Amino acid sequence: MMEQSVTYANLDNTIELKRKKKKKKSLRRECLLPLSPLILSLLPLQTLNKPWYRHLANEFARTFGSPFHRIQSSMILKFILGLFWYLLHIVVSLVHIWSYVIQQLRCYIISSGLFAKYRNFSLSRLRYLAVVVDSQEAKHTAKIKQLLSWLSAIGVKHVALYDAEGVLKKSIDFGQTRLRDRSAGTCLDGDVNCVTSRNYEEMSIELLSFTDGKEGIAKAASFLCSDHLKNDSDGCGRTETLFTEANMTKALKAVGYYGPEPDLLLVYGLARCHLGFPPWRLRYTEIMHMGPLKSMKYSAIVKALYDFSKKYQNYGS
Amino acid sequence: MELAFGRRDDHDREKRRPWVMDGCFIRVLSYSPMPRHIAFILDGNRQYAKKWNFTDGEIYQRGFCNLMSILRYCCEMGVEFVTVFAFSIDNFKRKPTEVQLVMDLVKEKMDAIIEDMNTVNDLDVRIKFLGRLTLLDESMRKAAEKLMAMTAKNKRLVVFVCLCYTSTDEIMHGVEGLWEEAKNNKGREKIANGLITAGDLEQKMYFANHPAPDILIRTAGETRLSNFLLWQTAFCLLYTPRCLWPELTFWHLVWAVLLYQRKYAYLEKITKRMCGFGVLLCQEHKKQIYSIYKVTLILLLKGGRSMVVESTCGGIEPKKSI
Are the C-beta atoms of B144 and B111 separated by less than 8 Å? Predict the structure, then answer.
């Protein structure tokens, strides 16, 4: 390792020396430019190589060089940079198109039933599934209901549907669906901040929004602190025993923002991010990006669940 | 080039790539907004050790070398904040020998950096250790505090090293902070009336007053967050390359930045929409208009000085370019 660092140090030194030589050559050229041929013819050749002369000529060029020339060259450079940037992104787009084509082929093969492994895999590890949907796409309730019916057909028992702005809570009305609606939720329908749940063909569904995440934890924190303020009037309680994660879980249950941790989270949106899903429930959840909701496919869900069944977690150990 | 143990390594290909290529790519990338904060989960070290027959001690040294390279690339790209998930509270469940190895390595590197503080200050890098540092032994804790104090004034790159950290523990740390305030009669009424907001809780967390990450990179193809930055990554792009941590290269970073730039408009839009829903750690992105004079690269022929950090698996050596 030390020998390598020495070798690379030598390499870098030689590169530096070459760079310095090139700079000297370019400085000499710059020196010659601003001066008229008349002055050049008068001065002896040795003077042109003197350092004071080179410095003077450099300063002259910098002061009296055309500003328009400089601006023009920076605009040209910016144009070239922009061109290369667009070319780079065209390459990225081509790669995405290629991976989209591969994905479509894979979905076609899965839906044709060629591979038995995609038909017979175990869902025993999947106790709870969460689906995050972009709020703009969550307005398409028909797509959401289709997604839920697919999940129900695969055999998923518990689903949490999340969108950041609470559109799902306002728009989804299970009473109007063709499929049977078993029971009503535990909260009032008009209350957006409440976690609502429905039973949907032997599948329980929980609707969540951004306020169930951070704000819910803040309310639980407030509950925890106020509870301890009442009980610990002497101030002699130790914070390590008062504020544990187990106590926080109990506080979340007390304020009504508790829920099980999903094993798998499917993200339907333009970017792979969880859009503020409740942080307390996201610790060891596998997050898979499924693309936009409008182009969702049954076989893509099958593939995601199959990939999840093959995952191994060691939980930090 | 073969390593001392007779194994060919991708790291050597990285060193052989001409510096001109890095500079060109970064300059082209900088035409569009660049991420301000990148977070890393260093996964796949043990798989790499099995693949190349390294011992535990060797692989963590190797992982550290790669971390130095990645920090260098982030610095060249103009990234302002880098967060590294060095050690989780859950990692204490590992074998005691392995835990002790990691702790010894961290202590060794901390001591090396403290000895070579002029270099770190010249590079203008600030190091902050975040996590429940009370779980570390006293010598490590003192070294960490000393390092944080000595680099407190540096601004060019802030490196958050998450030691003994989990996101749920960070939230509890925030709650403890609120409790301490309430005991001193500040905000008691707020607590009593249940008026504590997410913003109040965030102010007491480890990452208070720092921007949320723009990209979170987890290597080894794993798609979970493992209790890391759960609160801060609401609108952060998750990138999970299949390569193992020691195999993460400059090109993976370039790809991550390209993906981020493609999704930048969408992420900005949803972040601004959700700001009204109480997201305090809004990503404070401004549209960065880059000109050639803003990019700090080795490539420029004009004056100025930029530092390149090379790692030699034994410390940090600064190398000056023109």
Answer: no
**H helix runs in A163-295, sequence order:** 167-171, 214-231, 239-242, 245-255
Measuring CA to CA, which residue among A183, A129, A172 is closest to residue A152?
Answer: A129
Q: What is the ipTM of this complex?
A: 0.78
Site from B69, B172, B302 to mutate, A interface, most A CB atoms within 10 angstroms:
B172
> What are the structural domains of chain B?
2-165+211-278 (3.40.1180.10), 167-205+282-322 (no CATH)
- Residue A31: which residues within 8 A CB-CB, separation 6 or more? A48, A53, A54, A57, A58
**Domains, chain A:** 127-309 (3.40.1180.10)
Q: What is the pLDDT of residue A201?
A: 61
| Spatial distance between the Cα atoms of A314 and B6, rounded to a whole number of angstroms | 31
Q: How far apart are CA A270 and CA B97, in angstroms?
A: 44
Known catalytic residue: B43?
A: yes
> Judged by CB atoms within 8 Å, which residues 91-120 of B form the interface with A?
91, 93-94
Contact B191 A222 (CB under 8 A): yes
CA-based nearest residue in chain B for residue A13: B321
Q: Quick one: pLDDT band at residue B164, thresholds 50, 70, 90? A: very high
Exposed e or buried b per residue across B278-311, where buried means at least 16 C-beta atoms within 10 angstroms of its C-beta: ebbbebebeeeebebeebbbbbbeeeeebbbbbb
Provide, as residue numbers in chain A, all residues whose Cβ is less than 8 Å from the Cβ of B99: none
Instruction: Give tens-digit pLDDT for B60-118.
Output: 889 999 999 999 999 999 999 999 999 999 999 988 988 998 999 999 999 999 988 88
- For the question of whether the overall pTM of this predicted structure is more than 0.80, the answer is no
Contact state of B93 with A315 under an 8 Å Cβ cutoff: yes
Selecting from B178, B190, B267 the residue whose C-beta is nearest the C-beta of A271 gives: B267
